[in-house]
């Protein structure tokens, strides 16, 4: 299955480049994120290029929050 193979490669590359809290989050169970990609994003984009998992954002109060995924070319968060 192409999605499964591409997901595994994508996740591994995200883990390798991550640090700190983001890396910890990527090492946890990502069932929801994987389902979101499989059922909603993959059918549209057919690639993981441009996506960042567990994307950190700074809230207005200064707290770092993490969104499941960010599509960097359009700055859309999911």
Question: Could you explain how this protein is built, in words?
Answer:
The protein is an alpha+beta fold and 78 residues long. It is 49% helix and 23% strand. The protein has one domain. Strands 1-2-3 form a three-stranded antiparallel beta sheet, covered by helices on one side.
Detail the topology: elements first, then pairings.
Elements: H1 2-17, H2 20-26, H3 31-45, E1 51-58, E2 64-71, E3 76-77
In short:
With 78 residues, this protein is α+β, with helices and mostly antiparallel strands.
Key traits:
three-stranded antiparallel β-sheet, single chain
Characterize the overall form. globular
Rg is 13 Å
Tell me the structural class: alpha+beta
DSSP strand count: 3
Biggest beta-sheet profile = 3 strands, antiparallel
The tally of structural domains comes to: 1
Q: How many H/I helices?
A: 3
Strands of the largest sheet, in order across it?
A: 1-2-3
Are there runs of 5+ residues with pLDDT below 50, and where? none
Give the topology string: H per helix, E per strand.
HHHEEE
How confident is the prediction overall: mean pLDDT?
Answer: 98
Span of the ends, CA to CA = 24 Å
* Fraction of residues in β-strands: 15-25%
Tell me roughly what share of residues is in helical segments: 40-55%
């Amino acid at each position: 299955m192409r999605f499964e193979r591409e997901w595994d490669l994508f996740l591994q590359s995200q883990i390798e480049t991550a640090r700190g809290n983001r890396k910890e989050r990527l090492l946890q169970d990502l069932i929801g994120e994987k389902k979101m990609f499989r059922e909603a994003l993959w059918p549209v984009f057919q690639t993981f290029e441009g996506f960042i998992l567990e994307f950190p954002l700074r809230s207005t109060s200064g707290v770092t929050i993490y969104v499941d995924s960010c599509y960097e070319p359009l700055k859309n968060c999911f």
